[in-house]
Amino acid sequence: MTSNQGETRPMRGIALASAGYACFSLQDAIVKWLVADYSVPEILFFRSLVIVLIAGSLAWYRKHPSILKSKYRGTVVLRAILMLVAWMLFYNAARDLGLAELTTLYFSAPIIAIFLSIAMLGEKVKIGRWVACVAGFIGVCVAANPTHSPNLIPAAMSLAAGFCWALSTIYIRLVSRTETTLTQMFATSLLFGLACAASFPWIWKTPDATGWALMTALGLVAALGQYLLYEGFRHAPASALAPVEYTGLIWAFFYGYIFWAEIPTANVFVGALLIITSSLILIFWERRVEKGGNARQS
Questions:
Q1: Most buried of 106, 124, 184, 248, CB within 10 angstroms?
Q2: With contact defined as beta carbons under 8 Å apart, do 104 and 94 qualify?
Q3: What's the pLDDT tens digit per position in 190-234?
Q4: DSSP letters of 250-270?
Q5: 16, 228 in Cβ contact below 8 A?
Q6: Measured between alpha carbons, how far is residue 215 from residues 45, 50, 220 in Å?
Q7: What pLDDT, on the 0 to 100 scale, is given for residue 4?
């Protein structure tokens, strides 16, 4: 599918990305559980291994072209490095920050992504997307109140991770114009796995039964989330999907309650309402634009 075709279906892209971010929130909860006992590189290695096995097998079965022959292979490597840095920063910060606070600081990424989509992809960001993005960011801040962080270093790590992730999403949109989702997943996770495996002589700890189960589940959830998100970027502009990332905070609070019995306070509900409102603004705006485009073509 070409990028022109993809941009005529923003609603499909929004739906796919929303489901993908729900998976990523569950992924974050699983990793926060695992980092209490295992190092981040070891966790990321097993996550990558599962994705490589799934994506590689499907890409081979469907006879997808090798990404090594792509003109974007250098971009794929750069994106893999950015995502690896983002995950390393984010999950090491998870040792010192709560899931809600961690997610909030990380959600500087959608605002950054909109600016980068203008500078790097030449996307024209209209008022509806700006309103949705800003409203969602305000909702995130109200919900988790990150200004009370007692430790600035983990907070700075989470913000830096947000920048790396935002830049990597721009590259996803760029590469998705020509490369299949499965080959992107395979290449990125393979590079992840190799980089993490290099640290094994210093950090390896053999997982117990619970560790094996959680790491396998992590890989499956991450694989599904990546596939949904990459497909979302194939159908919609990066600037349209940036505000959708805020829905992940709602899932973060849900998983926080399920796994750690964290009960949201009043400001969480107010923030969540703002986030939901921003998503509805985005959906209304994209439907209006899509209908207007179809009316002009008819």
A1: 106
A2: no
A3: 888 888 899 898 998 999 999 999 999 999 999 999 889 878 877
A4: HHHHHHHHHHH-PPP-HHHHH
A5: yes
A6: 9, 9, 9
A7: 41
